[in-house]
Amino acid sequence: MLGSFGLAMWFLQRWCTMQQMDADALIQQSQQYLMNTYGSRELMLVKGQGVRVWDHTGKEYLDFLAGIGVNNLGHCHPCIVEALRTQAEQLLHCSNLYLIAPQIGLAAFLCEHSFAERVFLANSGAEANEGAIKLVRLYSKQKFSDERTTIITMHQSFHGRTMAALSATGQEKVQKGFEPLVPGFVFATFNDLKSVERLINSTTCAILVEPIQGEGGVIPATPDFLAGLRRLCNAHSLALIFDEIQCGLGRTGTNFAYEHYGVVPDVMTLAKALGGGVPIGALLAKGELAEVFQPGHHASTFGGNPLAASAALAYLRELFDGQLATSAARMGKFLRSELEALAARNPCIRQVRGVGLMLALELGPPLAMQVVAACRQQGLLINAIGEHVLRFLPPLIITEADCREACMKLDSALREVGPP
């Protein structure tokens, strides 16, 4: 007969086997019932704590992707969990036909800690960008003329998957097949001020730019480029829009990316990290632009609902009170130095680039997807942008030990898949 310990182990093994069977069934159902927008996925994450996550088999991973820059506080941070628990016991959702206390608090916090004077709350980054497009076009029509509707955006930019945001995105590969696109967007070369200036004419109303192009390969804007865009907008009465959906909220080592550059936009969009893991987006504006939207111009059923707004407010308090951006700047320098040391001894790596904890490795051979898969086997989560770029968006709470561990796993993965 089994002793008490043996019986406990039998039950544990049986439980794990049942969990695996349930997970296998779910994976099969995902292939049957979910649209195939994300390709084949065999990894199912079921638990997270801090900078670690676990899959359905119990395997542990060091998470250096953080939900693509969403989980800046790591997984299940106490302040986010408590904010959600408290709000869920009071009011999950109500219409924006009524005032929502957490939403008001969130808008006030954003305005008091940024350049902005008013805020519109949405559900995602794409929706925030859609709102920004509507805002600047309406403003320009009201103030100047009906013909002033064109927005200059950048090649290799990414602003979302909804139709106007997709049309503003400077990547043909994500637009192909969805034509006709929304008209009124023209594309300049990122970090080339003259290419922007050549596109300005009597129909131009705004310039839309990411301070750091995330999906374009983690390409930082030069300080001169953003300063030049500000001068052009001032000279031609254009609105300057910063898309900080991926690069904002502490990731670059400042609370907002525009602070890193010392250039203030007229309009800014936020999302990803804003809700600490809960979907929410924000459109921020100042001056006359902040007064443009009136009843009937724009709305959102779920935008800034009590649950999401409470989570976002909890994240922002932690960001501003806990020196999170300062830590991101310090750890970004450390992680970059570790990656540069790795690059010095690995001929596959062409370049290390990025700002703060938004970093990338550019590889010479087209190995990015293979390296990502090998890292996953090593217990490290990162992702690839195209065939040549590895992206690192870890939680802002990482330590030097986490960075060393990640680079050790990455080194092993590179040696496994790299050329001889």
Commentary on this structure:
The structure is a single chain. By secondary structure, the protein is of the alpha/beta class. The chain folds into 2 domains: 15-76 and 324-417, Alpha-Beta Complex (Aspartate Aminotransferase, domain 1); 91-321, Type I PLP-dependent aspartate aminotransferase-like (Major domain) (Aspartate Aminotransferase, domain 2, 3-Layer(aba) Sandwich). It has helices at residues 4-33, 66-69, 78-88, 101-112, 125-143, 163-168, 172-175, 193-197, 223-236, 257-261, 306-321, 324-344, 368-378, 400-417, and strands at residues 45-49, 52-55, 60-63, 118-122, 150-154, 185-188, 204-209, 212-213, 219-220, 239-243, 267-270, 281-285, 349-355, 358-363, 380-381, 383-385, 389-392. The strands form 4 sheets. It has a 7-stranded mixed sheet with strand order 4-12-11-10-7-5-6, with helices on both faces. α10 (257-261) links the parallel β10 (239-243) and β11.
Structural features:
420 residues, globular, 4-stranded mixed beta sheet, 2 domains, Aspartate Aminotransferase, domain 2
